[in-house]
Specification:
The protein has 174 residues and is mostly beta strands. It has strands at residues 2-5, 23-26, 32-33, 38-39, 41-44, 50-51, 56-59, 63-64, 70-71, 76-79, 85-87, 91-93, 95-99, 109-111, 116-118, 121-126, 129-130, 135-137, 146-147, 157-158, 162-163.
Length: 174
């Protein structure tokens, strides 16, 4: 079922595991803090900024950020489903971990539409990522996104990846 919340997920909640198939929907009109936990499905909407924690938010099903304004500084979002997952809304991740174990793994996570941007580290542990040309690694004066290669990866990235490179105006070249 769908659980809508226009407040912060209760801290100290005794509900440690969300029911299978459940969707938590942060839909408030003021700032909301996303709780670090395992979600089945996570949906964001409303006019308030959604702030991700300096911790890991795991999503086993769908992630629908919509057009919500989000702050992801120092956060890790982990897609860890056991069936195919799709990304459809444009979103900027700080760090993204792919750990989808669906079978077949050749289409575990697919970006069907919407530009997905990474500011930090993309870590593909398990499952394939099919980009459809909708993945961008960002670069700024202070940091450049990268793809981390884990010690025992069982994943592949299929499709184009756009890689930005920051060039300082001090060099006089652009």
């Amino acid at each position: 079922g769908l659980v809508g919340t226009n407040c912060t997920f209760p801290s100290g909640s005794t509900l440690s595991t969300l029911p299978a198939g459940s969707t938590i929907h942060y839909n408030g009109g003021s700032t909301q803090s996303i709780t670090a936990r395992q979600y089945q499905n996570l949906r964001l909407s409303g006019t308030g900024t959604k702030t991700f924690p300096a911790d890991t938010v795991s999503i086993g099903g769908s992630f629908l950020p919509g057009t919500a304004t989000c702050t992801t500084t120092s956060s890790i979002i982990k897609l860890n489903g056991t069936s195919a997952q799709t990304l459809v809304d444009s979103f900027t991740f700080e760090d993204l971990v792919l750990q989808n174990t669906s079978v077949p793994t050749s289409s575990a996570i697919t970006i069907t539409s919407g530009m997905q941007q990474i500011r930090g580290i993309l870590t593909p542990y398990a499952g394939a990522l099919v980009t459809n040309g909708n993945l961008r690694l960002l670069s700024t004066a202070s940091k450049t996104a990268m793809i981390n290669r884990p010690a025992a990866p069982t994943s592949v990235i299929t499709g184009n990846v756009n890689v930005q490179r920051y060039i300082s105006s001090a060099t006089g070249k652009r």
